[in-house]
Amino acid sequence: LAAEVESTPPLATFGPDMTLASTLLRRGWRDEVTEYLQLCRKFWRRGIGRLDGWIEEIGQGQTPRLNRSRSS
Question: CA-to-CA distance for 23 and 71, rounded, in angstroms?
């Protein structure tokens, strides 16, 4: 449900807070986090590259650091 939102300029630019997704990923909820990241593509246009990268890493069994900033 967290991804069922309308896009706003700040959300489209900076993306959603990934605290819960990060916690769930560390606890092994890989499929659920992947689904959430896929749903985020509809409103976080500037983050599609990061989302796709994270989805790929999770699919490879890795645990990426879900951070919205470009510097990390």
Answer: 21
Average of per-residue pLDDT values in the chain: 88
CA-CA-CA-CA torsion sign (43, 48, 54, 57):
positive
Residue 35: φ, ψ to 5°? -60, -45
Given a contact cutoff of 8 angstroms between Cβ atoms, the answer to whether 25 and 33 are in contact is yes
Give me the residue label for tokens 């989302």: 51
> Can you tell me whether residue 27 is helix, strand or coil?
coil
42: left (phi over 0), alpha (psi -120 to 50) or beta: alpha
- C-beta of residue 42 within 8 angstroms of C-beta of residue 7: yes
Instruction: Please give the model's pTM, rounded to 2 decimal places.
Output: 0.84
pLDDT above 90 for 32:
yes
